[in-house]
Write a structure and sequence with these properties.
The chain has helices at 39-46, 50-57, 119-122, 125-139, 156-167, 181-186, 216-220, 245-253, 270-282, 298-306, and strands at 2-5, 14-17, 27-37, 70-78, 90-94, 102-106, 110-112, 147-151, 171-176, 191-194, 204-209, 223-231, 260-263, 289-294, 313-317. The protein has two domains: 2-124 and 287-317, Medium-chain alcohol dehydrogenases, catalytic domain (Quinone Oxidoreductase, Chain A, domain 1), CATH 3.90.180; 127-263, Rossmann fold. It is of the alpha/beta class. The termini are close together. The longest helix is centred in the middle third of the chain and has 15 residues, at 125-139.
């Protein structure tokens, strides 16, 4: 099969013919129709920050040469112990090495794809959609009627978060670039702030930071006295932590303030994916895909993502 590989961290991405995987007793083999492109893929391609390597992905070189985490496709084979899926089912979720024509996953990492959602759209849900759901509902404990501020509202996680916050009954303020303001409004934000011309003013019950560079002190000033801050990610900083230090410091400070300060390490599971699938099937939630690239242009897709251009998500299509 064709797959996008890199043998060492930082090596150029290449399309190569590689052996096709097979489904184990509890595994599902998926014919990949589309794969999501997000910051996590860039981290695994480069091995940065170094904390990524220490998390089990390989200290000196990648444990898995094939890139990719998120996918959407058609079940090609199932192991004998798989009971909930069958060959021909259209699914989305996560897998191992999804920048390839075939990838292995498990029932616990997949859900059925709603008919109204394309494969390219579905491929973007597992990472960013789950992060938005867990950040708002679980870590953020968002309740109907509360006010939520979403930093990076026009990006990958942010475009899901605006819609999910609206579904949960919150009043949404989105911070984004002027080029993405109309998109953020169309997704359900009641108020939009252009970060290039001004800072948000006021206090919010929940602030969801999807990858900005504001200091922890600045973020706390945006909260009510008992408000909640959830830091989903950060792409600024050195080679060791690259922005994740804010999450660590938030956890340390959390016990000394009335405000609830936390970071988020999301994980896509079948129940979370099924919640998102139900919203997508009803039309309440629609993944926003800015641009798709063919598998052979995976490097260009990552460059486009890192440049900060996408209005929503980026996907590879096969």
């Amino acid at each position: 099969m064709r797959a996008v590989v890199r043998r060492r961290y930082g090596d150029p991405l290449e399309i190569r013919e590689t052996p096709a995987p097979a489904a184990g007793p509890r595994e599902v083999l998926v014919e990949v129709r589309a794969a999501g492109v997000d910051q996590g893929v860039w981290h695994l391609a480069t091995g940065l920050p170094y904390a990524v390597r220490a998390a089990g992905f390989g200290l000196r070189r990648p444990r898995r040469p094939i890139l990719g985490l998120d996918l959407a496709g058609v079940v090609a084979a199932v192991g004998p112990e798989v009971t909930g899926l069958r060959v021909g089912d259209e699914v989305f979720g996560t897998g191992d090495g999804t920048f390839a024509e075939l990838a292995v996953s498990t029932e616990r990492r997949l859900a059925r794809k709603p008919e109204r959602i394309s494969f390219a759209q579905a491929a973007t849900v597992a990472g960013s959609g789950v992060a938005a759901l867990q950040g708002l509902r679980d870590a953020g404990r968002l309740r109907s009627g509360q006010r939520v501020l979403i930093l990076g509202a026009g990006g990958g996680v942010g475009s899901f978060a605006v819609q999910i916050a609206r579904i949960l009954g919150a009043e949404v303020t989105g911070v984004c670039s002027a080029a993405k303001a109309d998109l953020v409004r169309s997704l359900g934000a009641a108020h939009v702030v252009d970060y290039a011309t001004g800072e948000p003013t006021g206090r919010w019950d929940l602030v969801l930071d999807t990858g900005g560079g504001r200091t922890l002190r600045a973020l706390r000033h945006l909260l009510t006295p008992a408000g909640t801050l959830v830091i989903v990610g950060g792409e600024r900083g050195g080679r060791w932590l690259q922005g994740s230090d804010r999450q660590l410091r938030a956890g340390l400070l959390n016990g000394f303030t009335r405000q609830h300060l936390t970071g988020l390490l999301s994980k896509a599971t079948a129940p979370l994916l099924e919640t998102l699938a139900a919203w997508m099937a009803s039309g309440a939630l629609t993944p926003v895909v800015d641009r798709t690239f063919p598998l052979a242009e995976a490097a260009s897709a990552l460059d486009y993502l890192r440049a900060g251009h996408p209005r929503g998500k980026v996907a590879l299509t096969l």
